[in-house]
Amino acid sequence: MRTLLYVLCCGIVIGSAYWAYKENYQTQASIRNVADLQTEIAKEREAISVLNAEWAYLNRPERLRDLVDLNFADLELLPLLPEHFADVELVAYPQPVLNLFELEEPVSVQEDSEEYP
Fold first, then answer.
1. SS3 labels along the chain
2. Rounded to whole angstroms, how far apart are CA atoms 67 and 102?
3. Quick check: 59 and 50 in contact, CB under 8 A?
4. What is the pLDDT along the chain (117 residues), one digit of tens a residue?
5. What integer pLDDT is reported at residue 111 of this predicted model?
6. Where are the domains of the chain?
7. By C-alpha distance, which of 62, 42, 45 is closest to 53?
8. Rounded to whole angstroms, how far apart are CA atoms 50 and 52?
9. Which residue, of 48, 67, 80, 105, is most buried by count of CB atoms within 10 Å of its CB?
């Protein structure tokens, strides 16, 4: 009986050691994966900041003005001036829709009928 107990305890210790070993390596793999993801996120953020800087550089007003002047014959673009816009008073707003279900006289919703008890 004592031998069976020793074998059982030894099996439990070996099983626990195997489980701890396996969990340790899974944890280390997860930590490496998180570190790799954080590195990738940092690279992507850097790429986004570079793209934002390039976008700002390409959209400089003086550069766009030069492009418009260069391609005026093809595009015929004109600068926007306040004279190109109409006054607010000249905007035609739609007329309000008349309510076709508007009642002139009140309608009784309760009947004084003696048909129903």
1. CHHHHHHHHHHHHHHHHHHHHHHHHHHHHHHHHHHHHHHHHHHHHHHHHHHHHHHHHHCCHHHHHHHHHHCHHHHCCCCCCHHHCCCHHHCCCCCCCCCCCCCCCCCCCCCCCCCCC
2. 59
3. no
4. 889 999 999 999 999 999 999 999 999 999 999 999 999 999 999 999 999 999 999 999 999 889 888 888 888 877 788 888 888 888 888 887 776 677 677 767 776 655 555
5. 65
6. 14-65
7. 45
8. 5
9. 67
Per-residue burial over 6-28, b = 16 or more CB atoms within 10 Å of its CB, e = otherwise: eeeeeeeeeeeeeeeeeeeeeee
Q: What is the pLDDT of residue 115?
A: 57
Per-residue pLDDT, 116: 53
Q: Measure the CA dihedral 2/8/13/15, to 10°.
A: 170
